[in-house]
Amino acid sequence: MSKAVGPAVVRNRVRRQLRHLVRERLAVLPEGSTLVVRALPAAAGASYARLGADLDAAVASARMPRSRRSR
Prior knowledge:
- This protein is an all-alpha fold.
- The protein has one domain (about 5-70).
- Helices cover about 50% and strands about 0% of the residues.
- It has helices spanning about 10-25, 50-65.
- The longest helix is centred in the first third of the chain and has 18 residues, at about 10-25.
């Protein structure tokens, strides 16, 4: 995780939150898929619920066929 997210305490908190959120959503991912989560600086100030909603939106977008994705 980039130092742009914040100091070590903040980066570790965001990392723990994202790990927990991803763990809750592993069942909806196709077997054998690879998920890469990158925290942007705004994640430091985001609530747990907001991180979850953003992760849900990203997973839903990734599961869509490429021709239907919005840019």
